[in-house]
TrEMBL record:
Domain of life: Eukaryota
Signal sequence segment: none
Organism the protein comes from: Arachis hypogaea
Protein name per Swiss-Prot or TrEMBL: F-box domain-containing protein
One protein family per Pfam: Actin
Similarity comment: family membership: Belongs to the actin family.
PANTHER family from the UniProt entry: ACTIN
PROSITE patterns hit by this protein: FBOX
Residue stretches in coiled coil: none
Domain F-box: 52-98
Length: 489
């Protein structure tokens, strides 16, 4: 797969002073035009003529550099000042530049999402050549994004929930996920209702004021009828709880799919190291391929932290809580590229935990992550992570779902424990050694693009689309009508 980035030329430093002066002149013209428009008459013909003659003598490339200094609002006003500039102001690269400079999201994410996600499902495969890339009007995208409502973004993971506003660079709050609210006997609707009310209360937000994008935890993995019913029940409970709170529109997407979007992919295999288990999820054009099979390994973040705790206890290290152990895992642990070679190295490192002093770890640093590849080290009878991913790749290849035989060769990691340094490199190495040579040539493992918040950023990408909430959301009226129809039948 290829991805690209529009190149925006920068002004020559030697001409910057002249261009700044010209930009000031144009800015004054825009203000004059705006004032005249407000007073219902045209700007002074003398001023327009003198300014126009000066600027028309400049090469279009220089004028374009000057326009970039103005900013989007005043650039749009120039088409009123001079008709000859209308085509120049409508230039797609100019508005791509404005999106890159004036948008809080990374430009490559904006470009990917507006090109491949704006129309929602069905998603098209990513192109293999530049000629196949769909055209996008960035001027239209900029205008639509400027009018977007602020959205609530909720990533309800298997261990911790991240939530915040679509306009902010990262989630502002974290808490236990809804799976931890209440007890197992509490109806799922009640737990969800409590969960969402807690979130809106902490955000001090009115539910009826903005749409919401919420991730659905990866669970009920099978393609059986009972698993389908459980997934449907969970999704409907999410919709019902939110609509009963008068949320105007809801977009609920699988957590693995959102992580894939965050990596700027629509097809691939997502490896989610969750709280209790690790899921290997094949996704084709934004849809989870459950018929191919979701592999599940009985190792998650909890087991990794527990294994490190046991190693520390064996070495007579005392600590006050599991939080301290988890912090040490995040700060000091890593995955060895070659486990046997690492055993003979000096890997000692230390970390100071607030209120508990210094902790020194040695081989525990890489032995903790090693149980993902050798579960027997932790007394767990399960496949290694590389074996589960290799099995999923083999199933994807055998299924022959599409003519593209490379769609499953991009592996994206997500989850907090997937951020262990060296994990992506080790997994890629193991896969190239384990998978049939005819399949392994283009296998690539991508570490979590946004760390533990990867799925949240994928949801944020949807919430910031120029077409949002449009094709991605279901409204309360649509949801009620759908259920009314289902009851009739």
């Amino acid at each position: 797969m290829i991805f690209w980035k529009l190149q925006v030329a920068s002004p020559h430093s030697s001409d910057s002073e002249t261009q700044t002066m010209m930009a000031t002149l144009l800015r004054k013209l825009c203000v004059c035009s705006e004032t005249a428009s407000y007073n219902n008459h045209r700007p002074s013909s003398e001023a327009a003529a003198s300014s126009g003659s000066l600027l028309e003598s400049l090469p279009s490339e220089i004028v374009m550099q000057i326009v970039r200094l103005l900013g989007p609002k005043q650039a749009a006003q120039l088409s009123v000042v001079n008709r000859k500039w209308r085509s120049l102001i409508s230039d797609n690269e100019l508005w791509a530049h404005f999106l890159e400079v004036h948008n809080p999201q990374p430009w490559d994410s904006v470009l990917f999402s507006e090109t491949f996600l704006a129309s929602a499902y069905p998603l098209l495969p990513l192109p293999t050549s530049v000629a196949e890339i769909p055209s996008v009007s960035f001027k239209q995208v900029y205008g639509q994004r400027a009018r977007l409502p602020c959205s609530v973004i909720i990533d309800g993971g298997s261990g911790y929930c991240k939530y915040g506003w679509s306009t902010l660079p990262c989630p502002s709050w974290r808490s236990a996920t809804f799976l931890e609210f209440g007890n197992v006997e509490t109806p799922i609707y009640t737990r969800l209702r409590h969960f969402f009310w807690t979130i809106y209360s902490r955000m001090k937000a009115k539910p009826s004021s903005q749409p919401v994008v919420v991730s659905i935890p990866i669970c009920h993995y099978d393609d059986t009828e009972s698993a389908k019913a459980s997934r449907r029940q969970l999704k409907e409970a999410i919709y019902t709880a939110l609509f009963d709170m008068n949320v105007p529109a809801v977009c609920a997407l699988n957590q693995a799919v959102l992580a894939l979007f965050a990596a700027k992919q629509t097809s691939g295999i997502v490896v989610n190291i969750g709280f209790q288990v690790t899921s290997v999820v094949p996704i084709l054009n934004g849809k989870v391929m459950r018929k191919v099979g979701v592999e599940v390994v009985g190792l998650g973040a909890l087991k990794l932290t527990g294994f490190l705790r046991e190693q520390m206890q064996q070495n007579n290290m005392s600590f006050e809580s599991m939080y301290t152990v988890r912090m040490l895992k995040e700060k000091l642990c890593y995955v060895a590229i070659d486990y046997e070679a690492e055993l003979s190295k000096d890997t000692q490192a230390s970390f100071e935990a607030a209120g508990e002093g210094w902790f020194i770890l040695k081989k525990e640093r890489f032995q903790t992550g090693e149980i993902l590849f050798q579960p027997r080290l932790a007394g767990v009878r399960a496949m290694g992570l590389h074996q589960a991913v290799a099995l999923c790749i083999d199933h994807c290849h055998s299924a022959e779902l599409t003519a593209d035989t490379n769609w499953f060769k991009t592996v994206v990691l997500c989850g907090g424990s997937a951020c262990l340094p060296g994990l992506a490199e080790r997994l890629e190495k193991e896969l190239h050694a384990l998978v049939d040579p005819n399949l392994s040539d283009r296998i690539t493992v991508i570490p979590p693009p946004y760390g533990a918040d990867t799925a949240w950023f994928g949801a944020k990408m949807i919430g910031n689309l120029s077409t949002f909430p449009g094709p991605w959301c279901i409204t309360k009226k649509q949801f009620r009508q759908k259920h009314k129809t289902n009851r009739i039948w």
